[in-house]
Amino acid sequence: MTLWSSTSLWWWIAMTLLLAAAGLIWTSARTASMPREAGAPRRQRRRIAPSESLLEWTLDYLLRAGIQLTPRRLVITVALVLGVLAVMLVLLDQRWSLYLLAGVLLGGNLLLQWRARRLRSRLRAQLPGYLEQLLRELSVGASPESAFKRQIARSAPPLRNMLERVWARRELGMELHEGLVRESTLLKLNELALLATALEVNQRHGGSLRDILSSFVTLLRQQERGRRELKALTGETRFTAMVLAIIPVLIGGYILITNPDFLSTMWHSADGRTALWLALGLELSGCFVMWRMLRAI
């Protein structure tokens, strides 16, 4: 009776995922069949307002990692993922199904966070060069907005993609500094907030924007130099942390290859299984603590 109840539960979960996938696909098809409103292109209209719904929050979360999707493509992707998970829940054992769900959620989140950090690093590296080109435009008498617009086409991705979103908001009535603040909040990039503050001060109170941007470029260069020096000074610490994290895994793999009966005996006993799970928990918690320590450096 218990086995039948567990099997029925997993079937209900799988069917729920399949129904959710079908509903998402139907919603996507219905949205695609509706006429588009006049005005700005779909790509520009989609990324204007802050997140107000779960769909927009998901789009912003993916955009923070450099993945730019339309709502329709996002819905179709989620529907396909739910369908695959439903099939895997039916085919795999219950225990492995839980591991699969946890692995997909955790692995996907870690991958997106890694892409977001990489995107921020690339933007920080491109921003000083862009500002220097902007200063040249301002020195020949161009206005800040015209110089900003002309430099978009001369920039390389991913900076160009971010600047295009800012300019799309400007064409729809948002101030230039407000668009930069929106991108700073979305990408968690404080440098854009400082640039927005400089533009806002110049717009409201006047003054020399070239002097402000010149000092800002110098500050960005100094920060980048400081990051490189800190990375070089902490290289030994980071390598030590990697070795400490890998050694238990290598020892466990060596024991599994040379003496598999030892781990098999532990796994089939209650106390041995508890010890293995405890070792895994300590390993994961230790890796998390060292990761947080390295991020704080």
UniProtKB/TrEMBL annotation:
Domain (Type II secretion system protein GspF): residue spans on this chain: 131-256
Protein location: Cell membrane
Biological classification of the source: Bacteria, Pseudomonadati, Pseudomonadota, Gammaproteobacteria, Oceanospirillales
Transmembrane segments: 12-29, 74-92, 98-114, 237-257, 277-294
Organism whose genome encodes this protein: Chromohalobacter canadensis
The entry's keywords: Cell membrane, Membrane, Transmembrane, Transmembrane helix
InterPro entries assigned: T2SS_GspF_dom (IPR018076)
Protein name per its UniProtKB record: Tight adherence protein B
Membrane topology: Multi-pass membrane protein
Origin superkingdom: Bacteria
Keyword Transmembrane helix appears in the UniProt entry: yes
Gene Ontology cellular-component annotations: plasma membrane
